[in-house]
Write a structure and sequence with these properties.
Structural class: alpha+beta
Oligomer: single chain
Number of domains: 2
Helix content: 25-40%
Distance between the termini: 38 Å
Strand content: 15-25%
CATH topology of the largest domain: D-Maltodextrin-Binding Protein, domain 2
Radius of gyration: 23 Å
Number of helices: 14
CATH class of the largest domain: Alpha Beta
Shape: globular
CATH architecture of the largest domain: 3-Layer(aba) Sandwich
């Protein structure tokens, strides 16, 4: 099955003059979609791992909420192209020093103005080592950032006036403006600093939606959002609000959709993948999305360090018949992986040297496993941890059965009840098995699938992988001012990943979704998340 490539507008330096993100918005007001503007849209979600602080949220449950209640300097449209949101302009002459101007009259929902300080103070907090924010890595290209010592204020951030600040990077990085729609770069009001933990339970944002009063986040149940009438950006809500329900299983969410008790579902359970399109017809979608699925087997686990670990990971990879799993378990709605990124991102390639480690080859798998046994004989069982509330049991059982059968070892899944519990075990490094991983792109670039996950010390480097040669290539790619030159470096970096296998690539996800009879104007974006602000509903 081929995944449709989404064209993403590249950001590149002109030979002379300034790079500017300005005037990206439509010059005329879009026609308001039909529907009840007061209707609440219900959708599925998952309990966030942490309080809703933008720089400490790097998982999809919390990210879906943050993207609805906050507005960054830019936002991404359905195809992943950036458009100014809070930014009036983002300008540079050299791709190293950027001058950012905030639009006049922007406010948080408590009435505070959105200013340059709102961004700079939030970024400084997110970058500081002592604050241990999961997304701190996103600030490491800014001058003054350090992994070795705490820095309270980055030297590369300077407030010029209420509406203007400058960002100086350690080196030129032409894709820096493209990153600024990610939640790590969202602003925070002054009220947040009074008690940040309390703020995370009832965040005050500046986006198209806001929390429906104190306690709108009912843990492990739902979060209720209403329209922010003061939001002035392009993402004006065509409905009256959004209720995100945290389901224990995807099957339960699907049953509610079938029964008319859920409006929009963005994850179809395995049990319905072969039938949902027939059932929902033109109220369903299967399309490419910037999502990569894998599993990690950390070096720290017995038998997976050093050369022995490389051999065992390669053996496991060759023991997996990805084509069979995607056909049987996912009814062809996944595509076997050929790299560590996504086919919908510009620069994707199926021909990276070393990618043959992803080919199903049971004989080679046995040979590699035997070579590892010669270093240290295998003992124990092999497991893949996963969250039971995310519809992963089917493929985990299939993959571990293949590993068991081809390598002749004991292998099985290791379920955790909820996504939040699962992610906490990974973050705290208390998980003692391999574990499923996935990446939903933060912004449309190859580097976003590589740097945040595999660079030494990166916030989403769950396996604690470290290879200086890989780090250097990512750094070189980011410093290129020509997009194609950067892509070449990122592909060279992937050659190292295929040798080390810090994660074992499985497949690319498509977004499979459906919606109810009363719902219209449903569009799923480049990263698989519906554009909820466009959805309309008749009561």
């Amino acid at each position: 099955m081929k995944i449709k490539r989404i064209g993403v507008a590249a950001i590149a330096l002109a030979a002379a003059g300034a790079l500017t993100l300005a005037g990206c918005s439509s010059s005329s007001e879009p026609e308001a979609p039909a529907g009840d503007s007061t209707a609440i849209i219900t959708t599925n979600g998952s309990e966030p791992q942490n309080p809703l602080i933008p720089t400490n949220t790097n998982e999809t449950g919390g990210g879906k909420i943050l993207d609805s209640i906050f507005a960054g300097l830019v936002y991404y449209d359905g195809e992943g192209a950036p458009h100014n949101d809070m930014a009036e302009s983002i300008e540079t002459d050299d791709a190293q020093t950027y001058t950012i101007t905030i639009k006049d009259g922007q406010t948080f929902t408590n009435g505070e103005d959105v200013t340059a300080e709102s961004f700079v103070k939030a970024w400084n907090y997110g970058a500081a080592l002592d604050n241990a924010q999961l997304s701190s890595y996103f600030f490491d290209s800014i001058e003054g950032f350090s992994y070795d010592e705490n820095v309270d204020e980055l030297s590369g951030l300077e407030v010029v006036d209420d509406s203007t600040f400058t960002v100086t990077l350690k080196q030129p990085e032409s894709d820096f403006p493209l990153r600024l729609g990610y939640s790590a770069f969202f602003p925070l009001p002054e009220a947040a600093w009074e008690d940040l933990d309390a703020f995370g339970e009832n965040p005050i944002g500046n986006g198209p939606y806001m929390l429906d009063g104190e306690g709108a986040w009912k843990h492990n149940e739902r979060i209720d959002l209403v329209v922010n009438e003061d939001y002035q950006g392009d993402r004006q809500a065509a409905n009256g609000g959004l209720s995100i329900i945290f389901y224990a299983t995807q099957d339960a969410a699907y049953a509610d959709l079938q029964g008319g008790n859920l409006d929009v579902l963005d994850a179809i359970p395995d049990s319905a993948l072969s039938t949902f399109q027939d059932e929902f017809g033109d109220r369903s979608v299967t399309q490419g999305a910037a999502i990569f699925q894998s599993f990690v087997v950390p070096d720290r686990l017995a038998h997976f360090g050093g050369e022995e670990g490389k051999l065992r990971r390669a053996a496991i990879s060759h023991a997996i018949n990805r084509e069979e799993v995607t056909d049987v378990i996912f009814s062809g709605t996944r595509t076997p992986a050929h790299d560590f990124t996504s086919p919908v991102i510009d620069g994707y390639s199926e021909d990276i040297p070393g990618s043959d480690v992803l080919e199903y080859d049971p004989e080679l798998a046995k040979e590699l496993w035997a070579e590892a046994d010669a270093i240290s004989p295998w003992e124990g069982s092999f497991q893949i941890g996963y969250n039971a509330d995310g519809g992963h049991q089917g493929w985990v059982d299939a993959v571990t059965n293949q590993i068991k059968n081809e390598l002749g070892i004991d292998a099985s899944g290791a379920p955790y009840p909820t996504f939040a519990e699962f992610r906490t075990a990974i973050t705290d490094r208390t998980i003692e098995t391999g574990f499923r991983t996935g990446w939903q792109a933060d912004y449309p670039s190859l580097s976003n699938f590589l740097g945040p996950i595999y660079v030494t010390g990166a916030g989403s480097n769950d396996g604690d992988y470290s290879n200086p040669e890989f780090d250097a290539l990512i750094n070189e790619g980011l410093s290129e001012t020509e997009v194609e030159a950067g892509i070449e470096k990122f592909q060279q970096a992937q050659e190292i990943l295929f040798e080390d296998l810090p994660a074992i690539p499985l497949w690319y996800s498509t977004v499979n979704g459906a919606w109810g009879e009363q719902v219209e104007n449903v569009q799923f974006g480049w990263n698989s998340v519906p554009l909820y602000y466009e959805v309309t509903k008749s009561e």
